[in-house]
Specification:
The chain is of the alpha+beta class. It contains four helices and five strands; from the N terminus they run ααβββαββα. The protein has one domain (about 10-140): Trna Endonuclease, Chain: A, domain 1 (3-Layer(aba) Sandwich). About 40% of the residues lie in helices and about 30% in strands. α3 (about 90-105) runs antiparallel to α4 (about 130-140). The longest helix has 18 residues, at about 10-30. It is globular, with a radius of gyration of 15 Å.
């Protein structure tokens, strides 16, 4: 299965990220804290030559007022935001968090990767699909 989909922007980068995550998950399995997967993933990124920033802090604004900061797990190649989880089941709040970070960073592409289930879970987000994703989150919240 090819992880590179030409129709998606930055598909080569996202495909490499997902491949690295698959390698980490196959070596470690599930059950560790998120920080363990984050450290292992950083090593894999180094092995593949991906440039990244880890735990990158971003300001959050309410209108024009800076009201605090949040940290995203990775910014890869200055183009793809990556949010990691190590939970048994992804919840709508995880999807909303990823979309909010993507918007706060003013980036087009983001990935949410979960190491906590027996199989690696990943989802790709784009700003263009924000409304669609938010509708799904709302639907999932209303229909648990």
């Amino acid at each position: 299965m090819s992880l590179v989909k030409e129709k998606y922007k930055h598909s080569e980068i996202t495909g490499t990220i997902i491949g690295c995550a698959m390698k980490v998950h196959s070596k470690l399995g599930n059950g560790f804290q998120e920080v363990i997967y984050q450290r292992a993933l950083a090593l894999e990124f180094g092995n593949t030559g991906l440039s990244y920033a880890r735990e990158l802090e971003i300001p959050i604004y309410y209108g024009d007022t800076d009201i605090g900061t949040r940290r995203v797990d990775f910014l890869v190649e200055d183009k793809v935001m990556l949010e990691l989880k190590a939970v048994t089941k992804l919840e709508p709040a995880h999807f909303a968090q990823t979309i909010n970070y993507l918007e706060a960073y003013k980036l087009e592409i983001g990935l949410l990767i979960n190491f906590g289930s027996t199989s690696l879970q990943f989802r790709r987000y784009t700003i263009e699909k924000k409304l669609e994703a938010l509708k799904k989150v709302i639907h999932d919240l209303r229909n648990p």
